[in-house]
Structure formats: structure tokens, C-alpha cells
Amino acid sequence: MAKMKYPEQIVANIPFCPGCGHGIIVRLMVECVNELGYSDKIVMHQAVGCCSLVGLGLDWEMLVGAHGGGGANATGLKRMLKDTALVIAYQGDGDAYNIGLAETLNAAYRNENITVIAVNNTNFGMTGGQMSWTTLPGQRTTTSVDGRDSKTSGMPIKVPELIANSFDTAYVARGTVTSPAEIRKTKGFIKQGLQNQIDGKGHSLIEILSPCPTNWHSNPITDSLDRIEKELIPFYYPIGELKVKGE
Amino acid sequence: MSKVIVTADLCKQCGYCERHCPKEAISFSSDFNANGFKYAVVDDDKCIACGMCYTTCPDGVFEITQ
Ligand SMILES: Cc1ncc(C[n+]2csc(CCOP(=O)(O)OP(=O)(O)O)c2C)c(N)n1
Ligand code: SF4
Ligand code: SF4
Ligand code: SF4
Ligand SMILES: [Mg+2]
Question: Which CATH number applies to A22-244?
């Protein structure tokens, strides 16, 4: 086995909760950018939400915009920076799919040459676990205390499928972080999404099913991985590439 | 040198590394790290330097040296 060392760009421990998937996903993004040779040519648009904790430990150029603005702000960054830097829009599900749904869909509609990393943890995590549009039917949150009632609040939204089936974008994939194999697969999706941007192919969205053990009240914390494997993937959010342009 | 370097103070005791280690080489300390967590400890005799712990750890605790 080759030597493995945590990327030097993560200069301090990022204060995500124990077992938070964001921590794994941040490392994957940095590894991919480094391996593609863009370690000093990268700008992240960090969303409002637990994504925004990343600024406390990751030494990258960053822009923070209004909640949900990732699709629009990353568009502006990329159009200004052109080939001089990669632009990642790092977003939560509540940010990308509720509050910023218009910005997210419009950036995809235009096939903007950006890479969107959407962390789907089926709730508004940072604010204490409110229901989001990805919350599963029956899932208890602080705003669906008896479990989400889909009769009055709709069914879980699948933005990756929506974009893959509706718009002429470069790439859509969904990964997760439940095991070393899934983490490696997800890393491949992220790297492909960044390679597409380098090649000027247009919009890539990688959704990542991610544990939020704090708001899921997972005890032990590893139960959060079981929840993704047993409740999220088989019924609502299948893993894999949903769209590869040209295939 | 040990196969894995553990930065104990970064550990948040989530248990992901222990769950995914194929050799059951990971256990937890009885004392606490600087942030009040029991931290991952690697048994170098059982460890095969496969890197599963590095891959699954959300907090950069592990470095695989060989
Ligand atoms: C316009 C606006 N509305 C609401 C908020 C409050 N707020 C801050 S973080 C957050 C939740 C973000 O959830 P998500 O995007 O799913 O990210 P997570 O924390 O779950 O990773 C909300 C609602 C805000 N800061 N600005
Ligand atoms: S609230 Fe959830 S998403 Fe936010 S840091 Fe904690 S575990 Fe992660
Ligand atoms: S390198 Fe592999 S065998 Fe060694 S502690 Fe980590 S997961 Fe276990
Ligand atoms: S995966 Fe990392 S943070 Fe979690 S228990 Fe293991 S060493 Fe600690
Ligand atoms: Mg969320």
C-alpha cells in the first residue's frame, strides 16, 4: 500500500461534529484538486450551513455568499477566472435544493462550467436539524416531530435525477461515504467532475449522501452509516453515475 | 517506525475506523484526548497498513507510513 498522508492544505481540524460526512468529503475534494495539479489554482464557494465550517481549517481561496447562492456565485467566479482556476460550489442539501433551488437549476440549465458538490444529509444540519426537501417520509426532525408527512409536505426531492433528465449538462453522479469502497468511488466522481471543468465540458453535479449523526441522533455514531445503506440508498437515492455527456 | 501514525488529539471517537479495519487492529484508549474523546489506538502487530482507517476517518487522524 502506498503511503497516505492527510493533505497539507487542511491546516487545522475543522470543527464538524464527530462522524460528520463533511470531514471525509472535504478531504476528497482536496485530494482530487491536488492530484489534478490545481492545488494553487482553486477557489471554493462555500455555502451557508455546515459547509461554512470548512473555512476554519482549509487553506483555499474562498467566497461565501448568501444562503443558496452557490449556483449564481460560482457562475460569476468561473466566468471571471476562466481557465486560471477551478471553481467548486460546495453546498448542503438545504442550501442547494431548498433555499437555492432556483440558482442551482439555472446554473445547470445554462450548463455553466462549474463543479457542484452537494452534501445530502437529509436535513438542515447547522441550524439544529429541520426538515429539508430531501428528508425521508416519516423522518423525525425538529420541524416534523411526528415524522415527515408527505401528504402535506411532498416527497423527497431528487435534484440529480431532475438535472440529468432535463438539462444538457456534462455530468451527474451520486456517491456516499459509508465504506472505503464507496469513498473511493465517490472520489472518482468528484475527480471526473473536476476533469470536466478542466476540459470545458460544462456543469457537473456530484451529490453525496452524508451522515449527520448529531441531528440523526445516531447512537452509536456508526448507526448513521447503516441508515444510509438501509434507508436512503435502496428506497430514494441510488448510487452511481446518472449522466455522462456523450454516453 | 509504526505502520500508522495516529494524531490522537484530532480523534472524535466516531468509530468509523474501527468498523472498517479489516484486521481488528483498532481499539480505543481508556484516557481522554485534549478534546475529551477516547482516541483510536492501533495495534501495530495486527495492522497490515491497508489504509482503510485513513480513507474512512473524517478528521485526518491517520498517516500510513509504508
Ligand atoms: C437566507 C437565510 N435563511 C436561513 C438561514 C439559516 N441557516 C443557516 S445554515 C442553515 C442550514 C443549512 O442546511 P444545509 O444546506 O442542508 O447544510 P448542512 O448544515 O445540513 O450541511 C440555515 C437554514 C440563513 N443563514 N440565511
Ligand atoms: S450538524 Fe450534522 S452536518 Fe453539521 S457538523 Fe454536525 S453532523 Fe455535520
Ligand atoms: S492500516 Fe488497515 S489494518 Fe492498519 S489500522 Fe488502519 S485499517 Fe487497520
Ligand atoms: S475515524 Fe478518525 S475520528 Fe473517527 S474514531 Fe477513528 S480516528 Fe477517531
Ligand atoms: Mg443538510
Answer: 3.40.50.970
